[in-house]
From TrEMBL:
Pfam family, one: adh_short
Family membership: Belongs to the short-chain dehydrogenases/reductases (SDR) family.
InterPro entries: NAD(P)-bd_dom_sf (IPR036291), Sc_DH/Rdtase_CS (IPR020904), SDR_fam (IPR002347), SDR_family_member_7 (IPR053011)
PANTHER family: DEHYDROGENASE/REDUCTASE SDR FAMILY MEMBER 7-RELATED, DEHYDROGENASE_REDUCTASE SDR FAMILY MEMBER 7
Keywords: Oxidoreductase
Protein name: Dehydrogenase/reductase SDR family member 7
Length: 337
């Protein structure tokens, strides 16, 4: 009888645990490990204050918001992107909203495609601050076009920018971290780094490449336990990523500015990125529902993941052709007549 009672309690305990986790997942805007770290782990305020952080793609979107939140935490910043005037604007706001001084912020205009300039930029940063504690590989560009309509230059351009450019910066920063035997390399991947997404074949390929590269690099860095390799995989987030996305030709961007209000707030996404950094999470999934459930389906039930992605993907294409944001209707939304 005691054995039966113990087994019954064990089964009920397992069922209760499963129900609790299901409820957590339904209400979640990030993977459950990340949300646990946010609630019970180390805070960005306790771990990132005083760090020297280099942010690429710092002039807009997630990169810009990262600079603001890091500035409020008291981190010294290196701001990089192609547009110097925008970087100076971000720098001014960082000074306004924080206790940082001019000496705590360095603007380094940088084109990720110009890999010949990356070593000099890295040397400049190290000479100025003496160290790089965190590299945030955020710079890149998205895509909105069907493969059959898209020129090969788009695929070459996206790989050179999103993948080769990121690898190049990492190539120059990593030896410095190895010498110090510590550091963090945080790379903004995407839901498309894990899941195939229509209208983004080239973008998804570049993000898949980043996933493979940094997952492999993490293993290579096994002899340096204090060098952390962190991949961040956001879903749809409010930014100018669609507005700046390339189309059928690499030099052509999306002309229509679509409604972005249905997407995750940029400040919430960035806060979760910083929590991931503070707790050294190897990979973080950040997305509102129903996008978040796709991560879990592709990870644990890929047949279902394929089926739902196929259905949602066709709707995504229809939205794009209709001139509205591709992600403006949820994949679980009902068809309207």
């Amino acid at each position: 009888m005691e054995v039966f009672t113990c087994c019954t309690l064990l089964v009920l305990g397992c069922l209760l645990y499963a129900v609790v986790q299901l409820v957590r997942l339904v209400k979640a805007d990030a993977d459950l490990t990340l949300l646990w770290a946010e609630r019970f782990g180390s805070s960005p305020e306790s771990k990132l204050r005083g760090a020297v952080v280099w942010v690429t793609g710092a002039s807009s979107g997630i990169g810009e918001e990262l600079c603001y939140q890091l500035a409020k935490l008291g981190a010294s910043l290196i701001l990089s992107s192609r547009r110097k005037d925008e970087l100076l604007r971000v720098k001014r706001k960082c000074l306004e909203i924080s206790s940082l001084e001019e000496k705590d912020l360095l603007v380094v205009p940088l084109d990720l495609i110009d890999i010949g300039a990356h070593k000099a930029a890295t040397d400049m940063v190290i000479k100025y601050f003496g160290r790089i504690d965190i590299l945030v590989n955020n710079g890149g560009r998205s895509q909105r076009s069907l493969f059959v309509d898209t020129g090969l230059d788009v695929y070459q351009g996206l790989m050179n920018l999103n993948y080769i450019g990121t690898v190049s910066i990492t190539k120059h920063v990593l030896p410095h971290m190895i010498e110090r035997k510590r550091g963090k390399i945080i790379t903004l991947s995407s839901i498309t780094g894990l899941i195939g997404v229509p209208l983004s074949t080239g973008y998804a390929a570049s993000k898949h490449a980043l996933q493979g590269f940094f997952n492999s690099l993490r293993v290579e860095m096994g002899a340096y336990p204090d060098i952390e390799i962190i991949n961040i995989c956001p879903g749809p987030v409010k930014s100018k990523v669609v507005e700046n996305a390339c189309t059928e030709q690499y030099e052509t961007s999306v002309e229509t500015v679509t409604d972005q209000t249905h997407k995750m707030a940029t400040d919430r996404c960035v806060r979760l990125i910083l929590v991931s950094a503070a707790n050294n999470l190897k990979e973080a999934w950040i997305a509102d529902q129903p996008y978040l459930i796709l991560y879990y389906l592709w990870q644990y039930a890929p047949t279902w993941g394929w089926w739902i992605t196929q259905k949602g993907g066709q709707k995504r294409i229809q939205n794009f052709k209709s001139g509205i944001d591709a992600d403006s209707t949820l994949v679980f939304s009902k068809k309207t007549s």
